[in-house]
Amino acid sequence: MLFMIGMGLGDENDVTAKGDAAIRSSSLVVLEMYTSILGVNTERLAEKYGKEIVIADREMVESEADKILEPAREGNVAFLVVGDVMAATTHTDLALRALDMGIEVRVIHNASIMNAVASCGLQLYNFGQTITVPFWTDKWQPDSFFEKILHNSRGGLHTLCLLDIKVKEPDFQAMARGKRKFLPPRYMTVRQAAAILLEIGKRRREEGVDTTVTTLSGSTLRVCEPTSLAVAVCRIGMATQLITSGTLEQLARSDCGPPLHSLVLVGETHELEDALLARMAIDAEPGKGPRPAPGDAVGELPPPARATLLEPEDIEVWDIPAAGDPRPGGEASIGAAVVGVPAAAAAATSADAASS
């Protein structure tokens, strides 16, 4: 049997009782690590269950699935996914392959960003289509998802933006020298996503597109404009969870800490939602800002996580690639209005790239 088990969004303690029993009954335990981040290291997971944890990358799940499925013909295999199993298409494909091989599949659900995003105070039934904001390069700058944002906005709906993850990307320069090497993992930040969305809005307005829309109820929303309201949803479910609201312009110069980050573009709101967003504002008074994280299951509640608004002198224009940019990955900016990572972090990134 193939157990497909959602791990939830925090740590090993978020696994459900059903999931826990399934893992303990399995002779092979595989952890998928390319669509999200587990809040603890795999050693802690292995220690809890007394089993070796096999780490699966995209290549293993999509191209070498037999390594997971063949053992499930004779015994139990636990396939672990951070969040909920069925939130990613690749996992549905794995389930279909198992069924085609005559293997019984049992899905054990858990919390994912798709429902935990309600922690930001916006009502789930007022969300429209979810989009993914991908990293841009100097030669590839997709923006087709903007049409979905417009569609949601016309209906007055919020838009959940999942932010790109790059794990185990090949280093083509090393490959040209005959070496098989991978680039360090990259996780898009709220700051980077906000910068890309602002740039897309700017380009569309230059093309004559009206990014101010009238909703079905007659209210007005500004789409991907500097004053557009958005919510940063970071490390949701972890002890360091951060939820903070602000304009896209503010979030494009924010430091929301380590990954994973998501971003919500706010549609029409009612009074209760407005009150919650105001309390979470990035520039709110101390004690009235982002809500505290839930904390560990058996520990003190940690101090509230807060985002930081960076000053102009602390920011290097770095996020959006420009054509012909010579730096590794082509990570530069298109215009001075687009902001990026802190200068110190940018310098460290440049040094790391130079030494690799």
List descriptors.
single chain; 356 residues; alpha/beta; Cobalt-precorrin-4 Transmethylase, domain 1; Methyltransferase, Cobalt-precorrin-4 Transmethylase, Domain 2; 2 domains; five-stranded parallel β-sheet; five-stranded mixed β-sheet; 16 strands; 17% strand; globular; disordered C terminus
* Biggest sheet: strand arrangement: 3-2-4-1-5
Please identify, by name, the CATH architecture of the largest domain. Answer: 2-Layer Sandwich
Overall mean pLDDT stands at 82
Strand proportion: 15-25%
Q: What helical percentage do the residues reach?
A: 25-40%
Question: Which CATH class of the largest domain is shown?
Answer: Alpha Beta
Sheet with most strands: 5 strands, parallel
Structural class: alpha/beta
Radius of gyration: 21 Å
- Given the structure, what is the number of helices? 13
Task: Count up the domains.
Answer: 2
Look at the structure and name the CATH superfamily of the largest domain.
Tetrapyrrole methylase, C-terminal domain
Report the span from N to C terminus.
43 Å
Q: Characterize the overall form.
A: globular
Succession of helices and strands? EHEHEHHHEHEHEHEEHEHEEEEHEEHEH
> What name does the CATH topology of the largest domain carry?
Methyltransferase, Cobalt-precorrin-4 Transmethylase, Domain 2
